[in-house]
Amino acid sequence: MTTDPDTTDTNTERAEVGAGDPHLQVRDLAVQRGGVPVLEIDSLDIRRGRVTVVIGPNGCGKSTLLGALQLVLHPTRGTLLLDGAPMHANPVQTRRRMSAAFQEPLLLSMSVLGNVELPLRLRGVTRRRRRAQAEHWLQRFGIAPLAGRHAQQLSGGEAQRVSLARAFASQPEVMLLDEPFAGVDAPTREGLIADFADILAETRPTTVLVTHDRDEALRLGDDCALLIDGRVRQTGAPAEIFDRPADREVAEFVGIENIVPRERWPWPLDAPPGGLVCVRSEQIGLTRGEGAVIQRANRVGAMVRVVVDVDGVELVAQVSRPLWSRLDADAGDAVAACAPPEAIHVLPERGAPTSPEERSRG
Amino acid sequence: MELIWDGLREAARLWWTGDAEIIEITLRTLAISSAATALALLIGIPSGAVLALRRFWGRGLLVASVNTGMGMPPVVIGLLVALVLWRSGPLGDLDLIYTPTAMVVAQLLLSLPMVVGFSLASIQSINPRLIGQMWAMGANRRQVLWLLIRETRLGLLAAVMAGFGAAISEVGASLQVGGNLAGETRVLTTAMVLETGRGNFEVAMALGIVLVLLAFAVNLVLTAVQQRRFIA
Prior knowledge:
The complex is a heterodimer of chains A (362) and B (232).
Chain A: H1 8-15, E1 22-33, E2 36-47, E3 51-55, H2 62-69, E4 77-82, E5 85-86, H3 91-95, E6 98-101, H4 112-122, H5 127-140, H6 156-169, E7 174-178, H7 186-203, E8 206-210, H8 214-220, E9 223-228, E10 231-236, H9 238-243, H10 248-253, E11 258-261, E12 276-279, E13 285-300, E14 303-310, E15 313-320, H11 321-327, E16 334-338, E17 345-347, H12 356-361
Parallel strand pairs in A: 3-8, 3-9, 6-7, 7-8
Antiparallel strand pairs in A: 1-2, 1-4, 4-5, 9-10, 11-12, 12-17, 13-14, 13-16, 14-15
Helix pairs in contact in A: 4-5, 4-6, 5-6
Chain B: H1 2-16, H2 20-53, H3 59-69, H4 74-85, H5 100-124, H6 128-136, H7 141-151, H8 153-168, H9 172-178, H10 188-198, H11 201-227
């Protein structure tokens, strides 16, 4: 995916046959709510057969973008293309090439089997064929024994499996998913995501996955688009966005806790002056030694979040609990802190991020 | 007290012997009120859906009219239909006054607001995101309406019961536009008015019992359907 159709990058992608060419294209899209613009996207390509994760803070327009792609809300302007053809020309036919699942399972009050069959029924598929299809997908999601159960008698995790089985049942070209795992409790979620990832790898529909979860984005996403205030702020591979954010706002959103002006950075750095140094807290290493003074330490799940003072700069490090025990240190004690050069990302104060090549040249 | 006992006994006898006139009146009542209710459902459910789901100019006024219509005195509806269908009225040429068709029209106008009002309320209670999911699944307009009806069937059955109840129990409008003509437009309610006026309480009571039993039977069936928690 790219935000600019004219870059050489996109052209080389287009030269590829099959997977990777733009399947869904958003052009000059604007959506308003009560006269206030909530989404403005100049250009966005969703590549065929890949999972594009859409991330961003609450209210950034992620769900609005998905709603626009489902043709359920009316944009003020813009064009949406599916395989190069306008999606609005025949909304029902377009929607029949796609499917959707949301945070809520949104099942109808009928049996589990009836729910999974429904998209096929709406497409006029014969009873025998749609039953076979539905049973296949129930099997794939490990819920075949629930087929006869009424949708209202399911647990949250079961209902979400039904919802996803329903989304796959019509074998859509495009799958639009809005936080499908967010409503499922943690232990159930792990298994569901694992099954979903397997099925996705097997069937490879073009997928747009809206999520706020970093692990989900890194695990499932091939491409990533980050939205802030209704605009695409950065696109690229998910790891690229999380490790090399384009600007300070993106860096803060992706959870980079250490953002320090270049001049105040306490350690030697092979980079031109100016800009902001970004390092993820889990990339800062702590060992026994000197140079940093522990300000405070808190347990966060399996990790310990340690705030250290290095030459008057406060840095946050996340270390594992065993490592923390080995350090045998507490607030006020001295330790040695370091950040590996490959973990350091330097942002110019404004504008585009410095590329690795530019940095090595500098 | 004796009057009541005699009435009950006579009602039982009329029932037992299968009095031809009572059977005929009963069937006519059922036919007219069912026709009116069926038409009311046909027009009322889609109208209720449109009022529930669409925002357009004048919607508020329409919803207020529906709510007013739910409490409209039947005699006013009867007057309006009579004025329109009267021989010298705007639709007088159709020659419909004092016919079962005129009674269907009057009862339709009485039950329509009930059906629209109940449909509106039950469709509005659906999670709007569920409706979004229906579209996302590839449903066309007709299929969405079908799924909505399916999802709101409990509320819609209440609409059927209210609509049918309004139609079958009504007397004023039926008299005004039907005229209570024996063998043509006489239904249970109008026959009861006539027999009560004549002092034939036992016949009136027999008719009353039929009317109540009929209404009860219809609602029993509908309730059974409604309360069957999970319809396939």
